[in-house]
């Protein structure tokens, strides 16, 4: 750092002679710039390129050579902001966004920047409290977003900032009440307020009605509570109200329809009650209406058909009700995403929906819909995501025939419908070569379907995720299914599947070859997929854990050694079958395994010591088998509870409080006593039901999609059903 500065001084010294005839920049400003204690990577900024700082990159001077703009975004600047910035008293524009600045900004120096109009310090690592010494009367824009500021924002700040138009402090750790004097004043000039992703608490203060120019108000992802202030509905320039993921309550007032330019209304993940405003149809500019995860009730107001600019309508997880087919969707021709899941809607699938030709994603899951899926659904040629799970639809064969023609369909979730029907296996579907040609996810769990695994499944060349758990499917696993090149999630638990665990499982290339698995689409799904527990929400296919669920079936024989080829597998469940023989040593090749459940079989021999090498294994059970010998110790084995091993009289080790195996009589009958429970525990069931969600806050357009937390798989309890 020091020699860098010395270098600067020498250059300055030389430039005094070399450029005497030029209109050089103000010497004080130049010295200030040169004493910036920043490390500037040479490749990203050619500075200083000459002695006249007005000619340097990112610097603008006025006629007399005073520096007025410092515009250095994305230059890799690493360091603290130098106090000498306060010497640039003519500075009006300062943009240092997207650098690596850290530490608190020089609060006292800021007080001399009385000409400052634009301040953008976003996307750095700045800390400390709000720099309320920025007292310029001229300040128009403050962007401190995506830093690490904390503390209160003093309301008094705004009394000096009479020209403030944009105030963006999103994505920091500010606390306390929303600073409101910005708008208490009737001369409120603010157009844009972004307070989202902080820890602001308390109510949204009244006064917004004074801000006749306010277009965008964002304060989502805070701890705000209480109702919306009534006068928000008089800020008639508002185009965007975005307050998701707070604890706001009360109703959405019908006066909201006065906001004639409202384009975005995001109030999801709050505690709003009451109905959708009856005259919402007057909001003809509305594009995004995101009200999911609240306690809203009533039916869809008929006037909503006049919101013809709507592209995204998400109302899932509320208590809406009424006959869905009574609402006329046909005017919503721009609608792309419709999510009405987890409500109490009744009736049949509305035929008016088939006119919404722009639809790409539809979820109507977990309602009380019934009837058949009409062949008219084939009109939705752009549809890529469809979840109808958890309703009372009938005629699976008809549904599959109607849907297979949808060329863009990539996710189809029909779980928990079609109760007790036959698994569709008609020739029309089997021999139609172009049906479901882009289907990647098929969910048909918990339908109590009977029959065999149909041949047409083997034609779905793009299939990655197949979930048929909790049905009554019998017969063996056909080889064609095990040739699907991209399949990485096979859910067949809780059926009547017989035969052996097929050696051909190692034909599932996506579980064998990282290159093939890496081809799994990493783009976001149009709507998230939900697993059976609230934690399981998948926004990308590639977040779904590679898994084979074959538990609670009638599989016999031994576990094939070839299973060791499935190196990318994270979950393997073979519990509750009739498997015998040894646990193959090759299982230790499954180095990514997190869950391994072999409980409730007739496995014998010792637990291979090599399994100690499975360093990600967090849930393991071999309970209720006929295993013998010492339980391996070390590695993850020191973390498993005794219940992982119980029901194997021949096992010994500290964990089962039996230190020696030598004196034990060998078990002879090969059968261990096991509890028999006929009740099926749904929590362990099918993986992808697009079902219940409680309090999930990630929406598809909630601004930034925050990275998904690393998946924590649910603890697998032991098998629960045997036949
Ligand atoms: C430039 O700065 C000097 C010193 O602060 C000042 O005297 C002069 O008036 C400034 N020029 C302009 C155009 O503001
Ligand atoms: C600062 O620069 C970045 C990068 O060019 C730009 O995106 C941003 O809009 C600028 N800030 C302002 C307030 O103009
Ligand atoms: C910033 O510079 C310091 C030394 O001046 C260095 O240790 C650090 O790694 C740099 N940080 C980045 C992100 O480049
Ligand atoms: C610039 O500011 C620093 C720190 O505030 C001060 O010590 C220094 O004297 C100033 N330099 C000039 C040239 O005004
Ligand atoms: C900072 O926020 C302002 C106002 O919202 C915006 O104009 C500017 O582009 C933002 N800066 C960056 C780097 O996004
Ligand atoms: C605030 O700034 C962030 C990034 O700097 C930007 O993503 C966001 O859109 C801005 N908010 C508004 C309302 O412009
Ligand atoms: C709505 O937007 C239009 C077009 O931008 C504008 O002319 C009109 O004044 C706005 N209405 C209100 C109430 O601000
Ligand atoms: C839809 O929005 C556009 C502007 O995006 C507007 O001009 C048009 O009037 C709106 N449609 C209706 C029916 O109001
Ligand atoms: C929809 O808009 C039309 C034309 O503006 C109007 O006549 C009709 O009453 C509106 N319908 C509803 C249900 O509000
Ligand atoms: C759904 O509607 C039924 C019948 O109207 C009612 O009994 C039930 O409580 C409702 N469920 C919810 C979650 O509102
Ligand atoms: C589903 O429909 C059948 C027949 O229409 C009816 O008997 C049954 O109660 C319905 N089930 C549910 C959960 O609504
Ligand atoms: C099921 O749907 C198919 C195709 O739409 C139709 O031909 C058949 O009659 C339906 N079956 C029943 C029982 O309604």
UniProtKB/TrEMBL annotation:
Q: Which residues form the Leucine-rich repeat-containing N-terminal plant-type domain?
A: 29-62
Q: What's the family? A: Belongs to the RLP family.
Q: Mind telling me what this protein is named? A: Leucine-rich repeat-containing N-terminal plant-type domain-containing protein
- Primary localization: membrane
Alphabetical keyword list: Cell membrane, Glycoprotein, Leucine-rich repeat, Membrane, Receptor, Repeat, Signal, Transmembrane, Transmembrane helix
- List the GO cellular component terms: plasma membrane
Extract the signal peptide range.
1-18
Record's Gene3D superfamilies? Ribonuclease Inhibitor (3.80.10.10)
| InterPro entries assigned | Leu-rich_rpt, Leu-rich_rpt_typical-subtyp, LRR_dom_sf, LRR_N_plant-typ
Q: Where in the cell is it found?
A: Cell membrane
Entry-linked SMART domains: LRR_TYP
Task: Give a yes or no for keyword Membrane in this entry.
Answer: yes
Q: Which domain of life is it from?
A: Eukaryota
- What residue intervals traverse the membrane? 684-708
> What is this entry's stated membrane topology?
Single-pass type I membrane protein
